[in-house]
Every structure is written in structure tokens, then in C-alpha cells.
Amino acid sequence: MLHQSDRLIETPSQTAGPYVHIGCIPSFAGLKDVYPEDLGRSPIEPGARGTRITITGSVYDGTGWAMRDAMIESWQADAEGRFAGQSGADPLVSGFCRFAADKDSGEFILRTIKPGAVAGRDGMVFAPHIALWIVARGINIGLSTRIYFEDEDNSADPLLARIEQRPRVQTLMATATGAGTYRFDIRLQGEGETVFLDL
Amino acid sequence: MPPPDAPAEPQYDAAALMPRRHDMHPRPYDPDYKTSVTRAPRLPLLSMQATPTEETGPRFGHDRIGPLDNDLIRNHAQGDALAIGERIRVFGRVIDETGRAVPHTLVEIWQANAGGRYRHIKDTYFAPLDPNFGGCGRTLTDETGHYEFMTIRPGAYPWPNRANDWRPMHIHFSIFGHAFGQRLISQMYFQGDPLIDLCPIAATIKDRGQLDRLVAPLDMQNARGMDYLAYRFDIVLRGRRQTMFENRPEGL
Ligand SMILES: [Fe+2]
Q1: Fewer CB near the last or first residue (10 Å), C or N of chain B?
Q2: ipTM greater than 0.85
């Protein structure tokens, strides 16, 4: 085990800028002939086990404007709570997806399966959730948050339990809008500010 | 088969992420970079020890990477033509805070062309597009964490912030590591560029030593006569504590 003083320091972040799509989702930038297809187009392949869900939302800045230039990555477990590569994980669940806010409406859509609960250290169990990482112009270091589901039992989730101001828990809840459809809005700043994570 | 409601046993090995040192990163809210003013959270982040969600992450196989993906001079070429610009090789090593190599991890870059113009539907700067330059590249690090790209040196470009702000020449980098909690996007600058000291985005990093790490030095030892210059850019990702399971193959 190295002491703190022996540690190297992480390379500092810089904003992804407005043209992040060129590198990460080139087809969104209008760049379609470098790679055969964008990486991370879907977190699942046909036949993946679990309930199909669609999550729609927007990323709002501090003025309430739905940002048109945000890029989001998601990472999640399979329906049984296993991450890709772990033994027994569903081989049809990569768990990783990249998606962008629409350039006209600012809305994003994530089509996936609902993940299972995830076991952590010391007997901790996390309620079903999807990790998000949000980058854009004006975001100097990527923002992490989680989507939980209001129709799951979240009462024993160790992360949610750490949120002191209980009404803020709601900022991490996807709300059901129909059969298999959810709404999840992200507010970067101000009233209803999303709980962002440092894990 | 476990009972339907039983979560899977944890299987992460050597995965415990060290806490991120936010003081070594740019300040999220920085009035000189105006867009950050409405996009920086006002409330503190919720801190907690990383969990399996942050300690696992996507992997990308070699089968996804094409032979020209790391050659921006040629990967958007129309016919035999090459991208216009000063030919450069950008290379380096990805390691973590404990000094260990990060092998087989995805490194993606994107950049403006030699005139400072991006090939993006939203870039309307009047510098012309280069028909033979796309501006994106990707590669996987090798067994020892090394990566390299061939590209052209991007041009500086003006951007709307204060009345006359210019971005120094830079290449955007996206690095995955082996855990979602190591995810990082940054920018590489070029040694000697006078615009670095004038740039409000570079200046969001308050620790000068940290900013200097983003400035790639010219490396003539790795340049090639009559062909290309070389710039070295090493990347350090968040560290993971060593555990008793260190020797077990990672389950990812
Ligand atoms: Fe840029």
C-alpha cells in the first residue's frame, strides 16, 4: 500500500466542450465515415434478460434551459445485478451506453433493461440504479449521478440513505410515465438541483 | 441459480478506487469561463466510498478498432489525399495514481483541423473544412499502457466568451480506464503556445503544476526526420488500491 505522498496525481480534467460528439458520438456530429458505427449505441443486445425500459429526460442549466449539447454515458448491471465481465453476467448486456441531448429539443432517450440490485462490500445492497456521467461545454469535470426507480424498494439503499435533506432523494428518482417508460430530468444548478456524486 | 431477489456476490478484485482529489481538478464554477456559471452545481457533491458500480466499467475489444482509427491524417482521406497540416505523432502512456500501467483501455481524441475548424454541425467558424480531415481517432493502450496517434497539429480558434478569446491549440482526450469511476475527459496543449496563458478554460485549473501536465513537450527523440514531429502526453487515472486479490484476473 502506497502512502498518500507516494501517489501520483490524477491528470486534471478539462471541459469536453461543444464538439465532444466528434470524438464520442461522431454520427451525431455529422461525421459518419470514419468508424463503421459509434461505440456504446446500446447497453443491451436483442435477447438480453430483463424488463425493457425507456428513460427520457433533459439536462437543465441553472436558468432552466434544456441544454442542447450535453453528452451522457450510462453504466449499469444486468437484470441480476451483475456487471459485464463478472461471472454469470448476461453476455447480452454490455451495460454501457452513450447518448446526447437532442440538438433541437435537448431531450435524451435511454433504452435499456432495468438493472437488478447490486451487492457491495460489507453486505451492502444497492437498489437498482444506473450510473450517469454528464459532460458538456461549461462542465469542467464530468458530473456523476444515478438513476434510481420510484417503483423499486429504495428504503435500504446505502447511497440514498446518506442524503441528509430527504426531499433531494427525489432528484435521483426516475418517475414512471407509463408501461416501461420513465422520466428522469437532471438539474445542474438551482432549485431542484440534482444530487451529484463523488464516489 | 440464485433466488430471483438475491443480488449477485461482489466479484470486483483490486478495484477499490482511491478518492478523487478535486482540488487537483479545475474549479467547476469559474466566472472567467462564462458557460460554467450556469452549469456548475452550487451544492456540495455527495461523497462516499466507491461501490461496484464505479469500480467496474466497460471494456472495448480490439475487434472494435479499425487499423486507421488512430491515424487522423488518413482516416478521413478521400482517395489518396492526406489531411493538411503539420504532421505530428502524439503518444504516451496511461497509468494510474499507483504508477501501474492501464493496459487495453480505450483512448479517444477529437480536434479541430489545421485552420482551427471542427467537422461538427454546430461549428460555423469561417476557417474552411479540410475534405481529408475528420478530426476523430481512437485506440487501445497496449500491454504496458502505451498509445499513439498520428495526426496534424490543430489550429487555434476564437470562441464566444469575452470579446476576443482564443483556444490554444489542443487535442481533446477521452480515457476510460478499467472502472467507470476512472472516466476522464481532458485536453492536451502544445509546449510553447502563448495562448495557453490567455485561455480561461485552461485557467479553470488553479494549480499551475497541474495545468503544466496538460502541456505536451516536443519530443525530438521520437520525431522522425522529413516526416513528423512528436509530442508526448502521459495520462494518470484515479488509482485503485491493491488488495489480496491483486493477482486474480480481473473479471472484466
Ligand atoms: Fe476544442
Answers
A1: N
A2: yes
The pTM for the full model equals 0.94
CB atoms within 10 A of CB B147: 24
| CA distances (Å), origin B235, targets A35, B11, B30, B141, B145 | 25, 27, 24, 11, 10
User: Does the pLDDT at position B4 exceed 90?
Assistant: no
Domain covering B28-39+54-237 in this structure, CATH number: 2.60.130.10
Q: What is the DSSP letter of B156?
A: P
Query: Which are the contacts of A169, defined by CB distance < 8 A and separation ≥ 6?
Result: A154, A160, A163, A195
The whole-angstrom distance between residue A61's C-alpha and the CA centroid of its chain comes to 17
Q: B179 with B58: CB under 8 angstroms? A: no
Chain segment B203-229, per-residue pLDDT in tens? 999 999 999 999 999 999 999 999 999
How far apart (Å, rounded) are the C-alpha atoms in residues A103 and A40? 19
- From the CA of B84, how many Å to the nearest CA of chain A? 17
User: Do the chains contact at B121 and A29, CB–CB below 8 Å?
Assistant: yes
Map out the domains of chain A with their CATH numbers.
14-187 (2.60.130.10)
**Nine-digit cell at A67?**
441544454
**DSSP string spanning A24-85?**
H-HHHHT--SSSSS-TTS-SB-TT-SS-EEEEEEEEE-TTS-B-SS-EEEEEE--TTS--TT
Nearest residue of B to residue A15, measured between CA atoms: B186
Average pLDDT, chain A: 96
In the structure, ligand 1 is a single-atom ion and the residues with CB under 5 Å from it are A 17
Cα angle B90-B97-B169, degrees, rounded to a multiple of 5: 30
